[in-house]
Amino acid sequence: MSILANILPKLNFSTSSSKKEYYEQKITKSTDIPEILALYRDSANIISVQNNIKAFEIALGSSTTFVKKQMGEPILEYQCEALKERKIFIYKSRFLKTKVFTQFHFYNKKLFIVENHFYTMNEAEQNIFQKIFVEKYNLSSKNLRGSFKLVDPKGNNLIVSNELYTSLIYLYNNKAILKDLQEKHINKSLKDLNQYQLHISSWQKII
User: Fold this and answer.
1) Half-sphere exposure of 19 (CA within 13 A, CB side)
2) Bridge partners of 184?
């Protein structure tokens, strides 16, 4: 039985395309390379922890096959058109009465980002959630105000945001993936610059 078997809600869609469109709209900007790199560079409120950072007890760097084995079939598998190495599995569950939207991001079939977004938690749920979090990572409740980043002994990150709603973003510390993303970002920036210069050059001849 998968991890989410007892907490997944029943969802009804008239067509598979309407389901796809619904969940594609909810995928966050972390599908974009600049946003991914910004998450890794974020150095505000860093807290070192001794426990290895995992999502649903799944290690970062795990394969697509292993994640499906642990989590069951996703609601949607999203293949990024702009970056063919990227694939995202979408899951939906509940924490008590709060809806949780989960994204597993893969790069060349390796799990490198997980996002959990907890919508509309009430005060009682927030207190229970905070208690679980404090105990799991041996933290002081004083550390859990606002947004902060946990870093484990392997260099994996967990960004916690308590702004509009509570979000957990898990980041796999893999130098090869980061290097590849940085190179793609630089190449795209150069391409965009060349296109901009060609555009301006064309108009200089016209005006």
Assistant:
1) 15
2) none
**What ranges in the chain are assigned the alpha helix state H?**
16-24, 33-41, 64-71, 123-137, 175-206
- 22's CB contacts (< 8 A; 6+ apart) are 13
What's the CA gap between 67 and 77, in Å, rounded? 12
Kindly list the strands in the beta sheet with 148-151, ordered across the sheet, starting from the edge strand earlier in the chain: 46-48, 148-151, 157-162, 166-171, 110-118, 98-107, 86-95, 76-79
> Could you give the CA distance from residue 207 to residue 205 in angstroms, rounded to a whole number?
6
DSSP string across 104-117: EEEETTEEEEEEEE
Chain segment 81-133, per-residue pLDDT in tens: 777 888 999 999 999 999 999 999 999 999 999 999 998 889 899 889 888 88
Q: In this structure, are residues 173 and 155 in contact, taking their beta carbons and an 8 Å threshold?
A: yes
- Rounded to 10 deg, the angle between the 33-41 and 175-206 helix axes is 130
Q: How far is CA 178 from the centre of its chain?
A: 15
Residues 6+ apart with CB under 8 A from 124: none
